[in-house]
Amino acid sequence: MKVSLNWLKEYVDIDLEPTILGEKIARTSVEMDAVYQPVGDMHDVVVARVLSVEPHPDSDHMVITQVDAGEDEPIQIVTGAPNVAEGQLVILAKHGSKIGGGQKIKKGKLRGVPSNGMLAALQELGFDDKVAPKDFEDGIWAFDEKDGVKPGDDVFEALGYNDWILETGVTPNRADMLSMNGTAWDVAAMLGKTPKMPEVNLIENGERRTDELISASAPEELAAKYKLRVISDVKIGDSPLWLQRRLWNAGMRPINNVVDITNYVLLTFGQPLHAFDYDKLPEKHINVRLANVDEQLVTLDGEKRDLRPGQDIVIADGDKGLMLGGVMGGQDTEIDNDTTTVILEGAIFNAHNIRATARRHDLHSEASQRFERGVNWDATQDALDYAAQLISELAGGRVEQGVVEATNVEKAPVVVDITLNRVNKVLGLELSVADVVAIFDQLHFETSVTGETMSVTIPARRWDISIPADLIEEVARMYGYDNLPSTLPVNSATTGKLTYKQQVIRSSRHFLEGLGLNQAISYGLTTDDKARMFTLDNAAEITKLDYPMTQDRTATRMSLVGGLLDDIAYNTARKQLNVGLYEQGRVFYRHGEEVRPVEVEHIAGAVTGAIDATTWDAKGKLVDFFTIKGMVEAYLAEFDFVAPITYVATSDHVEMHPGRTADVMVGDQLVGFVGQVHPAIAKNFKIKDTYVFELDLQKLLDLPKHDRAYDLISKFPAVTRDIAILVDENVAHADILATIAGKGGKHLKHVQLFDVYQGENVPAGKKSLAYTLTYQDTAKTLVEEEVNTAFEKVVKALVDELHAEIR
């Protein structure tokens, strides 16, 4: 919040330098984002009266003016401002002055006519376009005769631009400081003073009763308080300069006197108000309800909003929706120049609904910001009356008799008990009861003492305090955080150690990087369509976000492969064609009526292009199924599972190539898949042939494994036997290996496929495979008879079980 120091001084007698005060607030209350003067280094800009306006002889849009700047002689200014007129009090940047952006103004000639300065718009003094009044957004600023300025006056003083602004970063728990009243109470407490609060002296000078003009109804669960006042005979116009100064120094744009007063009261009390044009209400019955199905509303910013039924709070007149309650008013009932009767609304809305509506419509207004965080429960009536009082004074209105009150839920005062021992133990101090009570008195908290127990009655303006810990924090910050004793924590040292899961994750990353893959970190959120792709759990449902940040991040991922393919596509589009990536992370599965998904650790990889660099004598080898399968085999071998690892051809994964994909099994447990991405999917991602794998790392962690032990390296020679067989072409290499291993005996150490042949001299539908079998014993040299016996069993098993023909 931007706090005007001049305004704050009307509450509290402050004699500190602005920067020192800002530092004190930062050390005691809330973060201080900035302390500055809007004027900056601008200078020599004054008020001037336009004496005459004449056309420029060589321009169809510029004019020659003579202005009185409080000097002996008039000053000639050439300007292109479309709204300059004789008699106006305007802003003059004189020769030698400096304005916004460090721009220096010098006298010169514009199309041959001398000009000794410039008539300036507010934007040229550094005003933001969102703050400068709309009436002057296309031209220069002109003061009103009632503003009390005269030629020669310093413009920055007249505009409040030499004021100091304390820009506070208000945390959600200190929403009381989103108002001048709340800020004044806190600053006064830290300075040991009592603030002077604004007086509400409303005179109901109307002749009619409010409840005869308007009625209202509201459910307490939507609006715990809902009140209306009516002000008649209002004259809409510009606000006085003092009020406009306070608004634009707070970052708000002046609109007209009625709207400006509601914003001014919001800044004063932290209580949002809204003003309706009474004559634009057809039924004159205001009701608070939730949005209906297919209901739409045009808000003050001109946007048509599709409301969410049963969630958005709507303020309606009969059946007609008027505004988004607590967020933004509606265009149909806005205050305009023809308004004569105003309905003033003061309410406290349900914070949950306001927060959801503001996020859903991306409409974070000054009102919603305060309703979300909470407002002073006891200030609604005072704020309503103060606004009516100001409208009566500044817009000539008559305040009708009484208030229409739809709801007015009362809250009992919050009383918190705390002991001196607890305060001293937490803060490490040795305060007395009198010391603590003095701090509570400084905060203007009513306190009663029984022994060492203090019962503190919390004022409604500090709704952030409800438990003893909150009071201890108040004592600490008023005592001074810098004054608390510094001590080192006392605890026994513990030896750091990674869990088994952490060890596996870390070693997995090292291992895959050793295979040449680079780590990728993808978003955990993706689109609804991509979330379903490549999942290992087809029974799971996707988890959608209620309030996604973008259309590309609407659901939680159910696979890591989709994110890796996005990364492959990103690199491919930038001519990086040989890419190998892996990712370790979590996927999210939700079943049935579960609200929160289950998070499961997965690991995945994706490879495309060539795995070897092309050299002068050899072309780089392209990745194929066996490349990615070899990576998976090498990785799974590190676990040393009790159950065997097998690869089963499958076409169940619709996003994978049906002829180049296999399920990865450990025993009878499915732990993942490996293979080529389906060409249609690869085309959608705009990538070339890509091979991927994904493994359920949590299952790999849970499966039983052999105990690791030292394996003696044999010092005795190995014996090899080669065998070539002819089998049906649909017999899998894995089945042959399983048969050889099953009959090979305890001395069979390794089986290597060294030749595959189909073609001339091999019957159609057959294939020839040649293997080398290696036998070795760790205790002795194997003799010929032992090896031959074991080898004959392998040969017999191949013939009997696989109908192989020995070549």
Architecture overview:
With 807 residues, this protein is of the alpha+beta class. The protein has 6 domains: 2-37 and 164-191, Phenylalanyl-tRNA Synthetase, Chain B, domain 1, CATH 3.30.56.10; 43-158, Nucleic acid-binding proteins (OB fold (Dihydrolipoamide Acetyltransferase, E2P)), CATH 2.40.50.140; 210-408, Phenylalanyl-trna Synthetase, Chain B, domain 3 (Phenylalanyl-tRNA Synthetase, Chain B, domain 3); 414-479, Phenylalanyl-tRNA Synthetase, Chain B, domain 1 (2-Layer Sandwich); 500-702, Bira Bifunctional Protein, Domain 2 (BirA Bifunctional Protein, domain 2), CATH 3.30.930.10; 719-806, Alpha-Beta Plaits (2-Layer Sandwich), CATH 3.30.70. The chain has 21 helices and 38 strands. A hairpin with a 2-residue loop joins strand 24 (446-450) and strand 25 (453-458). Helix 8 packs across helix 9 and helix 20 packs across helix 21. It is elongated and about 125 Å long. The model has no long low-confidence stretch (mean pLDDT 93).
> Pairing-aware structural class of the strands and helices?
alpha+beta
Strand order of the largest sheet: 26-29-30-34-33-32-31
Query: Which ranges are low-confidence, i.e. pLDDT below 50, for 5 or more consecutive residues?
Result: none
Question: What's the tally of helices?
Answer: 21
Q: Hey, roughly how much beta strand do the residues contain?
A: 25-35%
Number of DSSP E strands: 38
Helix content: 25-40%
Mean pLDDT: 93
Tally of distinct domains: 6
Termini, distance in Å? 89 Å
Largest sheet features? 7 strands, mixed
Radius of gyration: 40 Å
CATH topology of the largest domain: BirA Bifunctional Protein, domain 2
Instruction: Give the CATH architecture of the largest domain.
Output: 2-Layer Sandwich
User: What is the approximate shape?
Assistant: elongated
Give the name of the CATH superfamily of the largest domain. Bira Bifunctional Protein, Domain 2
CATH class of the largest domain: Alpha Beta
